[in-house]
Structure formats: structure tokens, C-alpha cells
Design brief:
Helix content is 16%, strand content 27%. It has 6 helices and 17 strands. The strands form 4 sheets. It has a 7-stranded antiparallel sheet with strand order 5-6-7-8-11-12-13, with helices on one face. The protein has a 6-stranded antiparallel sheet with strand order 14-3-4-15-16-17, with helices on one face. A two-stranded antiparallel sheet has the order 1-2. The radius of gyration is 18 Å and the shape is globular.
């Protein structure tokens, strides 16, 4: 069991807009008003401590929470988003002493959470969770479905400096191998954060599982690690394809990249803007510079912009409501 982190799970209730549709009964809704968790392996005291730590910190509304204890990442709730994630991501690795992972999340006005976890059998991480897929409503206080929150990270970074995020890829198709376990297309991020310290290990986690895109848009993924290595994981004609970063930066929006010439990728407006900025800077960006790039590719439905310092453990979050930056720090091992 690894060292214990400061008790600060950040859980963030964000209003997201246009990466998912509104729905009266979100996927994962279960039980009555307080819900029934399926992933929690906590004792009663840990449950009370977790739910009792929830607090509202701004008018987004933004909440913070600390998840205490064990969860089972292989069972329980899976997200089933029904419209595309219009998101923008990049890894800036021109300065290998301070690589950075950056991401805009573009989605519907759903509750969400920035969650810090420290499982006894995995790496500690900070991740962002869309709470609507847990069935959690506008007032999350005391809702036991929050105990499933570790299952649905939409992006995040772990204590080894491995970060991962997702975006829609309408043409993706993932065929199933009967010899592999199947996990949801969002759940796979939890397995990566818990188990992978490097891009190679993250790719191995993807390769060991079938991904289930049923009930939502097909996805592709960007991963980066503390060495500045990065890779895009896509699913082309049913097979997993990996394109590794070969220069000072790597970017991902909602267009495929595996086997696609760079000039074709830049025809996508957001990809082109990121590529131009990263080329001009030589792939060097601190959090402030990365947020300027994220601002340039913001959409009307961008709900949060976040940067992860892959060696420093620093996380800088800007929400859609313009309430200023919130900063978090993940102690790195």
C-alpha cells in the first residue's frame, strides 16, 4: 500500500453544455434519492467520511469531495453518452523537464466532479467526472451514488504523471475479442489511471480490453506521461491503432489522426489552431500558455479547461462560468 495523500478529493459539480444531451433519467441512475452504489468497497465509516467531505466552493456550482477507501473499478456504472464529445486535447512536450497535458471538455450542462482518489491497489489520481451518469441531481449532498464516482473519469492524471483524456471519433469501431474482458469506453480511463505509469503501460491496458461504444459515440484517446511521451489510441475498422507522438507536441480533437497526413488534420479548425500554436512555441507551454491555447479553441459549449503538469503534479482548472482558476496539486511519486 502506497503512502497516504492529503485528504482532498476534489469533486466538482460543473455545468457542462453540448457534449451530452439532456435526459430525464441519466444512465447509471439507480435506487431512490440517495441511490445505491455498486463500486464502493468502503466500510461504513469511510462512506460517512467521503459523503461528509462534500462542499460547494463556487456558483458553477463547483463541489469538492474526498473519496476515502477502496472501490472495484471492474463493476458497476458505465457512462453511455449519446451525442459527440466536441473536445480539444494536446500534450506540450517541447521542454521534457516540464511536459504538460491540456484539455477542453465540451459537453451538456450536467453536474460533474473533480475527484481525487488514492486506492490501496492502484495509483493516486485526480480526475474529472460527469455526475449525471451516476444519476446525481442538482443537490448531491448525501447521495450514495457519489460512491461510484471513481468509475467515470472523463480525463485525469495519476501520481506517476500519466494523463489521459477522450474525445469523440465518429468513424471509430472497436470489434470484440472473446478472449478479453469488455469495459465501457469511459471506464477504461479509470483502469489506465489506476494501473499505468507510462504511455507504454497505458497502451497495454487499452490492448488488454474490449471497449464498449454501445449507447454513446465512439471515442479516441490521448495519453501522455512524465517523460514527455504521448500517444493517440484509436479504433479503425475494428482494430486498435496507436500513433505515438514523434515531436514536441501531439494534439487530438474530433478528427481521426492514425494514418492521416498532418495537412489533412489541420483542416479541422481546432486542430489547426493548436498545431499552429504548438509549432510556434516548439511545443513548450506552461499552464498559462496552455490555457491561452485552450481559450483560442473554446466553443460555446466548452464547460471546463484543465491543464495537468505531468512532472509537477499541478492541476489548473478554469470553468465555463468564468469564476477564475482553481488550482490543485497531486503529490508525485
Amino acid at each position: 500500500m502506497r503512502r497516504t495523500l492529503p485528504a482532498a478529493t476534489v469533486a466538482l459539480l460543473l455545468a457542462l453544455t453540448a457534449c451530452s444531451p439532456s435526459r430525464s433519467t441519466p444512465p447509471g441512475a439507480q435506487g431512490g434519492p440517495t441511490g445505491t452504489p455498486t463500486a464502493s468497497r468502503q466500510d461504513a465509516a469511510q462512506v460517512d467520511e467521503t459523503l461528509g467531505s462534500l462542499r460547494r466552493v463556487d456558483d458553477l456550482p463547483l463541489y469538492e469531495m474526498t473519496y476515502v477507501g477502496r472501490y472495484d473499478a471492474t463493476t458497476g456504472t458505465d457512462a453511455s453518452p449519446a451525442t459527440p464529445f466536441g473536445c480539444s486535447l494536446f500534450v506540450a512536450a517541447g521542454d521534457r523537464s516540464r511536459p504538460l497535458f491540456a484539455r477542453n471538455f465540451d459537453w451538456d450542462a450536467n453536474p460533474a466532479m473533480v475527484l481525487r482518489t488514492d486506492p490501496p491497489d492502484g495509483y493516486a489520481s485526480i480526475s474529472l467526472v460527469d455526475l449525471s451518469y451516476l444519476g446525481v441531481g442538482a443537490d448531491p449532498a448525501g447521495d450514495r451514488r457519489l460512491l461510484n464516482a471513481p468509475l467515470l473519469p472523463f480525463d485525469g492524471m495519476n501520481e506517476r504523471g500519466l494523463a489521459v483524456g477522450l474525445a469523440a471519433d465518429d468513424g471509430a469501431r472497436a470489434d470484440r475479442d472473446p478472449g478479453k474482458p469488455t469495459v465501457g469506453s469511459v471506464r477504461i480511463l479509470r483502469l489506465v489511471l489506476d494501473r499505468a505509469a507510462t504511455v507504454d503501460q497505458a497502451v497495454a491496458v487499452f490492448a488488454a480490453h474490449n471497449l464498449d461504444f454501445d449507447g454513446g459515440p465512439p471515442l479516441h484517446y490521448l495519453v501522455g506521461d512524465a517523460t514527455g511521451a504521448s500517444a493517440v489510441v484509436e479504433f479503425v475498422d475494428g482494430e486498435m491503432r496507436v500513433e505515438r507522438g514523434r515531436g514536441a507536441w501531439q494534439a487530438l480533437t474530433n478528427v481521426p489522426v492514425a494514418g492521416i497526413p498532418e495537412e489533412r488534420r489541420r483542416e479541422d479548425r481546432r486542430y489547426g489552431l493548436i498545431a499552429r500554436a504548438m509549432t510556434e512555441s516548439g511545443g513548450v507551454a506552461d499552464a498559462a500558455a496552455a490555457h491561452r491555447v485552450l481559450t483560442a479553441v473554446r466553443q460555446a459549449h466548452t464547460r471546463w479547461s484543465v491543464t495537468y503538469g505531468l512532472r509537477s503534479g499541478e492541476v489548473t482548472l478554469v470553468t465555463a462560468m468564468g469564476g477564475g482558476e482553481r488550482r490543485y496539486r497531486l503529490p508525485m511519486s
